[in-house]
Specification:
The complex is a heterodimer. By secondary structure, chain A is an alpha+beta fold. Chain A is built from 19 helices and 34 strands. A 7-stranded mixed beta sheet of chain A has the order 3-7-1-14-11-12-13. Chain A has a 5-stranded mixed beta sheet with strand order 9-17-16-15-10, with helices on both faces. Chain B is an alpha+beta fold. In chain B, strands 2-1-5-3-4 form a 5-stranded mixed beta sheet, sandwiched between helices. The longest helix of chain B has 14 residues, at about 105-120. The chains are: A alpha+beta, B alpha+beta.
Chain lengths: ~800, ~160
């Protein structure tokens, strides 16, 4: 922690908060406050990037490669430039003049902004057309003639890693293979020994395909370089505006973009889910175009560009092995992964964690021996990967352990719930040191699973399943008891491009007792304007409705690393509480002055200080705020504001148990999720309504990858799943009516006992659904199906087993 | 490219524009009329964030040409609130937490309004069917169903 707890009030009780302790006027933590951001959104008055219109603004459209791998023989812009309204075509050689044709990725790899002579994936940016109107820019892009010589693409990461494979990244001096990185965690020899000694070993290849966040708003920007001031204002769809500002300064410093002259504004964001963390070539081209042309440039992706070229998630080929005793006690876990990173490693991961937090793969179980390793391959696919609503590869880890647990249950003929109960880390073992190096902060796994089983009526569902199976009907019950690791993270281990992963809050209390609070994070729908106000309300007793929350403008907000990986509440939320407590400490000095007592004679009760033993002698926070500007004691600095940069001492470990029921149509292979019960534990809850909404949305984003979503490629490098025609995002018809509940196990190290929650359901739902489908087909000898479990996949399996109708 | 003079009524106000044949209705609304509540989310009329009411029918305005709307009445999200009073669907959306990022919300609400105009008391299944052409990536749809039920009760 960067500020030692000098005042005992700074670190208040983190007791279990099952009910609000403030009234509905204050609306502190625990109230289901209606969202402060809603009034503008329900009136169509949000302000998204494409809504921004600047005087003289021009439009940019991008020409993209139809080939996964090709030599560029020539780019002919003549026809395009003849179109009235087309002003310029920017290509690789144009950018090369400014040395802007390459850029670093967040993972310290490199990628082209625009190519000089070779394209490395389908839909790669080849050049950009600048025009006076959106449609004319598109006409211009159509009219650019690019002559390619198609080259053979490398589409299989296993082949890419095989000895003698052609080297893809010829731009890297001395690169002799296609290994982007190797990473491992745990003790290999120890795990090998434990695995060899295990009474039972199950092994399963598990593939999590390439998927895409497909936020409803695509990516885009308006780059506005003011040559008179030398200042760049960049309105862009980013989840991490401050980090982007620094990256721009580092990348374009040599052409005169200095960090104090860069303002990044992230306006309302139409969903992020990790896809708006990276800096894509389009942003950089728009900036370069604005600098060169001297006008604001708008670039908005269409959906196909979004799905085909933006960072993907997953693409993990895992071999998962689990050793156990005959009684079901898990003894050893070993996972070997080949990760397909595409043309460049553009993962949005902390620097020291190239495979993200995959080493959470021991999950909720007390495993004493574990080892995992990842070999990351370059292929001719778009670069990545991002997280798709999870904290850096936690979804991959959870899928591996939760799937293999069911494979073990099947092998031992044990009930999967009983097997989980047997192996859970026990409540009394927390804080728990995992064999792969994490210190789990708190948990009560049996309670969550028991609650899920009771809610769904587990035992009677098993009976129903038996009856249905006897009738030839296919019904499955699937369980997932996941543990996440979120809230990156402590500066000791966590940084992105060297910038430590703290986050911030700045609170200003105005003379009239109202407040402004600004943060280094950036909401993309999570409701920060509401929840942060509730945290400050809880701490200061100022009504949440009187607290204005702002994020996303680097000129005004304190520096922070942004919103992804469920880190906002664990970091900026904590910072909000601690900044508020600094304000309260100062307010106490003002109260002592006004009430003419010593500070130690004062006690705090929501919204006011009173004199111990004389509660009628008190000053409200509003009175104290006024005094801070009008009647401060001699020697006390005027004003009432505070900033806190919170460096978390540990990550938070939210968990949950999900159970779902699926029915399978033997005629079509279609899987219908009939019921889905989600019991989550994210510690103390700021706003139950918003937490439930996060779970609902995450569950739908679990159904999608489990059953429908995939960005695939044929061997020629052609994408399928590259538009909403074939990338199937679940609708209201594929989602059941979610049944949610929670248990509360506060985080012992977070200032108000909260954990991140935004991604829990996306992590927990896919294995629950996959386990349910396998459970439905278990009696046919099915032990595993890779997601997405499409009707086609199931029907072919049924046909193979002679069970299709 | 040939230009066409068109007249439409948008949220009760008469508007005129000179447009190219190819101009999409959504761009007429967003760029010519600067009503930016209606969004664009895909190129294939799958996502529904561009849904507006065209002569009483919900349409995906990315798949309608502006010239096709000549002489029509258009209602966008900006036209739902009347005389400072929220439409019951708008009220339902905020009461039931049926929106998060807000990007699908305008189109989704228009679809919900259209449903309630033809069916005052829809079942859950009817609501789910009605909104199945509008994608939402944030809410998981539960609360949108509840918002429509809330509005349905208010409108009775």
């Amino acid at each position: 922690m960067n500020t030692p707890p000098t005042d005992s009030e700074m670190y208040a009780s983190k007791a279990n908060m099952n009910a609000p302790t403030t009234d509905s006027k204050i609306c502190g933590m625990g109230h289901s406050m209606k969202r402060k951001e809603d009034p503008r959104f329900i009136r169509g008055r949000g302000n998204y990037v494409d809504d921004i219109q600047l005087p003289g603004m021009l439009y940019m459209d991008i020409v993209r490669s139809p080939h996964a791998h090709a030599k560029i023989k020539s780019i002919n812009t003549e026809r395009a430039l003849k179109i009235p309204g087309v002003l310029a075509v920017i290509d690789g050689p144009t950018l090369a003049k400014y040395n802007l044709h390459w850029m670093p990725t967040i993972s310290s790899d490199t990628q082209m902004v625009l190519p000089i002579d070779e394209v490395m994936y389908q839909a790669q940016e080849v050049c950009a057309v600048i025009a006076t109107e959106r449609y004319i820019a598109a006409d211009g892009a159509d009219a650019v003639e690019v002559d390619y010589e198609a080259l053979p693409p490398m589409m299989d990461p296993h082949k890419a890693l095989a000895p003698g494979a052609p080297v893809l990244r010829k731009d890297k001096k001395d690169k002799k293979d296609n290994l982007a990185f190797h990473w491992e965690a745990g003790d290999r020899a120890d795990t090998d020994r434990a695995m060899a000694a295990a009474e039972v070993v199950v092994s399963q290849n598990v593939y999590l395909p390439r998927i895409h966040v497909a936020s409803m708003e695509t990516c885009g920007c308006v780059a506005d370089f003011n040559s008179a001031e030398g200042k760049l204002t960049m309105y862009m769809t980013t989840q991490a505006p401050h980090a982007v500002r620094t990256v721009f300064a580092l990348v374009a410093g040599h052409v005169g973009l200095s960090e104090e002259k860069i303002r990044v504004v992230s306006p309302d964001i139409g969903g992020g889910f990790g896809g708006k963390v990276p800096v894509y070539p389009g942003y950089v081209i728009a900036v370069a175009a604005s600098v060169v042309i001297g006008k604001p440039i708008k670039w908005i992706e269409d959906r196909m560009e979004n799905l085909q070229a933006d960072s993907f998630a997953r693409d993990y080929h895992m071999k998962v092995e689990l050793g156990a005793k005959k009684d079901g006690t898990m003894t050893a876990l070993r996972i070997k992964t080949v990760a397909d990173h595409g043309y460049a490693n553009a993962s949005a991961n902390p620097s020291k964690f190239p495979a993200g937090l995959f080493s959470i793969c021991t999950g909720s179980y007390d495993l004493k021996h574990a080892f995992c390793e990842v070999d990351a391959a370059y292929t001719h696919k778009p670069p990545g990967g991002v997280a798709y609503r999870c904290s850096f590869r936690v979804t991959e880890a959870a899928h591996a352990i939760e799937r293999i647990t069911d494979v073990l249950a099947d092998k031992l003929k044990m009930d999967p719930a009983a097997l989980r109960m047997k192996n859970f880390i026990k409540p009394e073992q927390f804080p728990y040191q995992s064999v792969l190096g994490w210190e789990y902060d708190s948990g009560n796994y049996p309670a969550a699973l028991r609650k899920a089983m009771d809610t769904i009526g587990y035992e009677s569902l098993r009976k129903e399943q038996q009856e249905k199976r006897a009738r030839g009907e296919l019904m499955g019950i699937g369980i997932c008891s996941f543990t996440e690791v979120v809230g990156a993270g402590p500066s000791k281990n966590f940084d992105i491009l060297g910038i430590k992963m703290f986050d911030s809050a700045e609170i200003r209390v105005h003379p009239t007792g109202k407040a402004m609070a600004r943060f280094g994070t950036k909401s993309q729908g999570q409701g920060h304007e509401t929840t942060y106000a509730q945290i400050v309300a809880q701490e200061l007793g100022i009504p949440a409705s009187d607290i204005q929350v702002e994020e996303g403008d680097t000129d005004t907000a304190p520096y922070g690393l942004g919103t992804y990986a469920s880190r906002s509440t664990p970091t900026s939320g904590a910072a909000a509480a601690l900044a508020a407590r600094k304000i309260r400490a100062k307010a106490k000095k003002l109260a002592a002055h006004l009430l003419e007592v010593r500070e130690e004679d004062l006690e705090w009760e929501t919204g006011k200080f009173f004199v111990k033993g004389a509660p009628q002698k008190s000053k409200t926070i509003q009175e104290l705020a006024f005094a801070a500007y009008t009647n401060m004691p001699q020697g006390l600095e005027p004003g009432l504001e505070a900033t806190h940069y919170y460096d978390p001492p540990n990550l938070t470990f939210p968990f949950g148990s999900y159970i779902c029921v699926v029915d399978i149509d033997r005629g079509t292979g279609a899987v219908k999720v009939r019921r889905f019960v989600a019991i989550d534990d994210c510690g103390n809850i700021i706003n139950p309504m918003i937490v439930q909404g996060q779970i609902h949305g995450g569950l739908a984003q679990g159904v999608g990858p489990a059953l429908y979503e995939e960005i695939g490629y044929d061997e020629d490098g052609n994408v399928y799943g590259g538009s909403f025609m074939d990338y199937y995002v679940p609708t209201s018809m594929e989602c059941p009516s979610w049944e949610t509940g929670h248990t509360v196990t506060p985080s012992p190290h977070h200032p108000f006992g909260a954990k991140g929650v935004g991604e829990s359901a996306t992590v927990g739902a896919p294995p629950a659904i996959a386990n349910a489908v396998v459970d439905a087909l278990k009696h046919l000898g099915v032990t595993h199906i890779d997601i997405p479990i499409t009707p086609e996949k199931v029907w072919l399996l049924l046909k193979e087993k002679g069970a299709a109708e | 490219m040939a230009k066409h003079k068109i007249s439409v009524t948008v949220n009760g106000a008469a508007r005129e524009a000179e447009v190219e044949s190819r101009l999409l209705l959504v761009h007429l609304i967003r760029e010519n009329f600067r009503l930016t509540g209606t969004h664009v989310g895909c190129d294939t009329s799958h996502c529904g964030v561009c849904t507006v009411m065209l002569d009483g029918q919900p349409v995906k305005s990315c798949t309608v040409l502006a010239v096709q709307a000549d002489g029509s009445k258009i209602t966008t999200v900006e036209g739902l609130e009347q005389g400072g009073k929220l439409h019951p669907v708008q009220e339902g959306f905020t009461e039931k937490h049926a929106l998060q990022c807000g990007f699908c919300t305008p189109g989704m609400m228009i679809t919900c309004c259209a449903l309630l105009e033809r069916n005052k008391n829809p079942s859950e299944l009817e609501i789910r069917q009605a909104i199945s052409g509008n994608l939402c990536r944030c809410t998981g749809y539960n609360n949108i169903v509840k918002a429509v039920q809330h509005a349905s009760e208010k409108m009775r």
